[in-house]
Amino acid sequence: MKNSAIVFARAPRLGAVKRRLAREIGDRAALRFHAATLTGLLRALAAERRFRTILALTPDRARIRLPRGVARIGQGPGDLGQRMARALGRFPHGRAAIVGCDIPAAGPADLIAAFRALGRSDAAFGPAADGGYWLVALGPRRPAHPFARVRWSGPHALEDTLANFVGRRVARLRVLRDVDRAADLPVSLRDRGRYPAPARCASANRSKSDRPPTPRPKARSPA
């Protein structure tokens, strides 16, 4: 059975994504960052043939254009843990990984490393610098409730999740930084290196109303 890489994401909608980041840089800039990072990750993963790429989207029926070769599923109802468990539960007998879409440094090599780690471990986690995690990969031998009693969106998310894996072999991947605030952007972009910078994407995707007026050339006085 082919390994499955599941990208967890919200549909790119103005005012509905990266809300903490949006409070500092504005809704439109946050949307441009989210859309550029999500699209870049999907394209990079879809180009890798060693696993299949699936987008798990919320809202379930939101319209989105997908890169060629990317499948799509809905996240369904419930809190983050319930939705993640549902997505991974689609592949109970194989190796499956969930990766977030707001980690600009993440790429195909990280998914390959996670699936390789499952050859000797029951689970693999990509720790985030804030105490959460940006990737979780599970093999067939997994807890019945891997995300029970987890305090999400805080410094205890990884610690709480690992409490459900007592007695299991767990591998840790490299620590990466997600983008929740404007201060996170420069660090993440230095880590990433390969994707276009959000600032550049924002400039290229501005609407006409967002662009500053083009200055008119000054009339020269006659000689």
Describe the structure.
The chain has 223 residues and is of the alpha/beta class. The chain has a single domain, classed as Alpha-Beta Complex (Spore Coat Polysaccharide Biosynthesis Protein SpsA, Chain A), CATH 3.90.550.10. Helix content is 31%, strand content 18%. It has seven helices and seven strands; from the N terminus they run E-H-H-E-E-H-E-H-E-E-H-E-H-H. A seven-stranded mixed sheet has the order 3-2-1-4-6-5-7, with helices on both faces. Helix 1 (19-25) packs across helix 2 and helix 2 (27-46) crosses helix 7 (198-204). The longest helix is centred in the N-terminal third of the chain and has 20 residues, at 27-46. The radius of gyration is 20 Å and the shape is globular. The protein starts with a strand and ends in a 19-residue tail after the last helix. Residues 192-223 have low confidence and may be disordered.
